[in-house]
Amino acid sequence: MNTDIQAYHNALAEEDKAIADLLFEVINANMGKAENKIWHRIPVWFIDGNPIVGYQKLKNCMRLLFWSGQSFEEDSLAPEGKFKAAEARYTDVDQINVKDLKRWLKKSKTIQWDYKNIVKRKGRLERLM
């Protein structure tokens, strides 16, 4: 774990840190050579500069976000925002279904929308894979 992500985890309350630690472990083990770093103050994984998955502490939960998650066709991921993102929210580490998470991560590598160039395209997303 890089020092910036470790600092993010260390700043969390114990319950939230347990969730973040498990998310990091599973995401990192399943994202291959994807780059991970703190981006907009949260841990995010990128493939070729395109944001794929990340998590963040919200007021009352930890949110797991897949930038292209609405295209995964997964009932347990809720739409987020006006683009193609979808999320899962957790208040306890026991709520994380690792089997589901691994399936979502596998889809995240093959189903992607081009967020990297969204500004250049004036807010229009194009499907990459």
List keywords for this structure.
129 residues; alpha+beta; Aspartate Aminotransferase, domain 1; six-stranded antiparallel β-sheet; 3 helices; globular
A few lines on this structure:
About 30% of the residues lie in helices and about 25% in strands. It is of the alpha+beta class and about 130 residues long.
| Structural class label | alpha+beta
CATH first level: Alpha Beta
Question: With helices defined by DSSP (H or I, 4 residues minimum), what is the helix count?
Answer: 3
Low-confidence stretches: none
Total number of domains? 1
Overall radius of gyration: 14 Å
Overall geometric form: globular
Indicate the CATH architecture.
Answer: Alpha-Beta Complex
* Topology-level CATH name: Aspartate Aminotransferase, domain 1
Q: In what order do the strands lie side by side in the largest sheet?
A: 1-2-3-4-6-5
- % residues in beta strands: 15-25%
| Overall helicity | 25-40%
Mean pLDDT: 91
Distance between the termini: 28 Å
Order of helices and strands: HHEEEEEEH
* Major sheet: 6 strands, antiparallel
Number of strands: 6
